[in-house]
Every structure is written in structure tokens, then in C-alpha cells.
């Protein structure tokens, strides 16, 4: 009787999930021991988050920032399934998918990542735009375009979070909006790029200063109105 290969199921196609799948596929498995590797993600594309802001400047296209999983996994032996995970039966080692069948696994990798919380501050869910997915980038691009086509003398944008994404986004929007732009970077900690090196922090600070981006450190957002933000 032929023994079934071990099935490794990886839930989540971000950096952790995708690179785990690729690395496992590259191991020098002996043929009888080669596992079946399945990668599950609700999106059909891998999003390279560090370059997501490039969509706002047109420097890169969607296919460059978010290539399809099918292309990335071609000829690797990894099987991709686009689906949303509905539940996990740990006792019986089965993954339940929304609008799809269950399937068994022998080894499970959880790499589902997280989502930007929108319910902690009044007004965020209705008026703020998260910046984590392609849909977020498209939504922000549309909003910026509408503001650019308006008669507003100044376009005021507040970016909350002084990590790499926040700093890059502030710089790119400042460049795009030019003299009309009034950019404000709000960071709850006492410095931007808190986990980065001093050299990177200094370079980022200089880049923001050169583009006249106002920086608020040790500042938290209390609420967001239709055209105001309370700090």
C-alpha cells in the first residue's frame, strides 16, 4: 500500500507564510518523504508591503508590487488555494474554509498576520484609511486624486504611525502634493523608526524635514472628525 505524503498546510500568504512554503519546497527531500505543501490565502496576490506606497506615485505597477501567488509558486510543487479560513479543528487536524470543503493536515503553520484595528478611536472606522492592502492603496489613491482635483488651496493629510510605512508614505505624498500639501506625521512614541538604527532614523528625519512634513512625537489620536483630528 502506497503511503500518503505528509501534508503541510500553511495559512496566510504574507512574508512568513510564503517564504515558509518556498523554503520547504527547496529542501532536498527524498522522493518518498517529500511532503504535500498547501498555501492558503484569501487574496490571489502576495503584497510586498514595503513598496505599497509606490502605487501612489506611479513608480511601480500593481503586478510589480503584488504578483499573483500562482506565478510565484510556479514549478515549486507548492499548491495554492485562494480561500478564507473559517475555522481549525485541532483535535481532528482539519482546516475549515468559507464556502468550501474541509481538508486534513499533518502539520499546520499559522501565518495569518494581523489587521489594523479601527475600533479603538472614535471616527477611525468611518473616516480613516488603513494602509495595509492593495484595496487600501487604491482607496487612498482615489481620495488623493479627488482632493487634487478640488478647489482646495491646501491639502492637509495626517499620517498616524512613524514606522517605515508611515515615513515613506509621508515623503511620497509630500512630493506628490507639492506646495499644496500639508503633511503631518503623528507618532505615539518618542521617536520615529523606533526599532531602526540611529543612522536610518537620522536619514528619515532629514527626508521629512526636507519635504516640510510636520512631526508630532509622543502624541496620540483621540478622535477623528469629518475634517479634523483631535490629538
What would you say this structure looks like, in words?
The chain has 231 residues and is an alpha/beta fold. The chain folds into two domains: 7-110, FAD/NAD(P)-binding domain (3-Layer(bba) Sandwich), CATH 3.50.50.60; 124-220 and 224-228, FAD/NAD(P)-binding domain (3-Layer(bba) Sandwich), CATH 3.50.50. Helix content is 29%, strand content 22%. It has helices spanning 15-26, 62-65, 69-72, 124-127, 134-148, 164-177, 198-210; strands spanning 7-11, 36-41, 78-82, 85-89, 94-97, 103-104, 107-110, 155-160, 181-186, 214-216, 223-224, 229-230. The chain has a four-stranded parallel beta sheet, with helices on one face. It has a three-stranded antiparallel beta sheet with strand order 4-5-6, with no helix packed on it. A three-stranded parallel beta sheet has the order 8-9-10, covered by helices on one side. β9 (181-186), α7 (198-210) and β10 form a beta-alpha-beta unit. The chain is elongated, with a radius of gyration of 22 Å. It starts with 6 loop residues before the first strand and ends with a strand. The mean pLDDT is 93.
Q: How would you concisely characterize the structure shown here?
A:
The protein has 231 residues and is of the alpha/beta class. The protein is 29% helix and 22% strand.
Question: Which properties best describe this structure?
Answer:
FAD/NAD(P)-binding domain, four-stranded parallel β-sheet, 7 helices, alpha/beta
